[in-house]
Structures are given as structure tokens and as C-alpha cells.
Amino acid sequence: MRASIFFFALAPLAMAEAIPDVYARQVVYIACSGTTGNAQCCATDVLGLADLDCANPTTTPQSKDDFTAICSAGGQRARCCALPILDQALICSDPV
User: Fold this and answer.
1) What is the mean predicted confidence (pLDDT) over 9-13?
2) Is the entire prediction scored with pTM above 0.85?
3) In the chain, what are the domains?
């Protein structure tokens, strides 16, 4: 009897401890949204209007810092662009 009371008293505490872990795995990071919704790694920025030598990130970023690290590994900057075309991108901004 005491064991079942002890179990039912502590079971909610164990479940409460696991909830943040489950939630963290389900949250999806969205690097870019709105009109500048295309995540790009770009080498050169021209006044924030155009970026040159752009490519998609090699892996899916899990956070802003991860996005920056992915692009930095290739010597590029993390950017969110409106129109990526032919390794160039127009109207770019920093990721959120």
C-alpha cells in the first residue's frame, strides 16, 4: 500500500521532468520568414540589396547560431533572401 502511494505521489514529478525534453525536440527552427524566406549562405553582400556566390545551407539549421556556423564553415555568411537565382540573391537580411 505504501509503495503504491509513493509511486502515485512521485509519478507526476517524473513526467514533469520529461516534458521540456520532448518539447525541445518538437520545436522547429525557421531561419527565414516572410518575403525574405529563403535561407542562403552568401560570400559577398552588396549594400543589403544583392548577395553574390550564394548557396543553400549544407544541412538544416536548428538555431540561428547553428545557421551561422554552417555558413561560416564554408567561409560564407548566413542570409535570408527574397529571390535567390543563379548563385546570386536579391534583397537579403540577417536570419532571426
Assistant:
1) 57
2) no
3) 34-93 (3.20.120.10)
